[in-house]
Design brief:
244 residues; alpha/beta; seven-stranded parallel β-sheet; 8 helices; 9 strands; globular
Length: 244
């Protein structure tokens, strides 16, 4: 299934992991009218039915098993009829609030498996498909990559993504564009799932649609790294810049 979305005369094939919820779903809804989308998540087809944008494909890929998730993505892309990718947005992630500043061993392992190891394996598996179209790999980090006392393992995993993007951007230069985007806090429910109550700070979290707009513009520009926070938003980041 090939979509009709275009930048100039080129149709875009876009993969978004974690595309069934949060920022991934917000980005998918923004791009669905113009592009052909394949989304992934750990939920079943039945569980996501009716929530995805019309025409978007879906593949089950649980990043709790990094190797199998990479295999599932490649298999799902082939089943969808694609032999190349223009954009891969590796967005899926988890987070857990540390108890008294200390993460449990299980929480650390799960966070690093989902947020870092799975992304590394997926990036490697998707490289040949992206190379065919000289596409763009976008890793979705977080402003927490600089460190956060409440979510140390999550912060470490996002710092790892920052380093991974720098390495792959150099290694794959001239073949695949690589970038890392660091969104600020958004009203996605991630903090609730992580067991962390931000209190009054929740009032200044950005709307998912606004963050998705900044993500789309940053992806089109291919720059790295890019911080998507209140400062960028107040400077018109959700309404200006390139269009994907």
């Amino acid at each position: 299934m090939i979509g009709s979305g275009r930048i100039g005369a080129k149709s875009r094939r876009i993969l978004i992991t974690g595309g069934n919820a949060g920022l991934g779903l917000a980005l998918a809804r923004k791009l669905a009218r113009r592009h052909s989308l394949l989304l992934s998540g750990r939920k079943s087809q039945r569980e996501v039915a009716g929530t995805l944008p019309p025409g978007a494909g879906y593949v089950v890929a649980d990043q709790g098993d990094p190797e199998l998730s990479a295999q599932a993505l490649v298999r799902g892309i082939g089943d969808f009829g694609w032999d190349s990718l223009d954009n891969a947005v590796l967005n899926a992630g988890v987070g857990f609030a540390a108890v008294d500043g200390v993460d449990s061993t299980d929480a650390i392992r799960q966070t690093l498996d989902v947020n870092l190891l799975a992304v590394m394996m997926q990036a490697q598996a998707l490289f040949p498909l992206l190379k065919k179209s000289r596409g763009t790999l976008s890793l979705i980090g977080s402003v927490a990559h600089k460190g956060s006392a409440t979510i140390p393992a999550y912060a470490a995993s996002k710092a790892g993504l920052h380093g991974l993007a720098r390495a792959l951007r150099s290694e794959w230069s001239g073949q695949v564009s690589v970038q890392v985007l660091h969104p600020g806090p958004a009203k996605t429910g991630l903090h609730d799932k992580a067991g962390y109550d931000p209190g009054r700070m929740r009032a200044i979290f950005l709307a998912p649609d606004d963050v998705a707009s900044m993500m789309a513009s940053a992806i089109a520009a291919r720059r790295s790294p890019v911080t998507l926070s209140w400062v960028r938003y107040l400077n018109g980041g959700a309404y200006t810049g390139r269009r994907l």
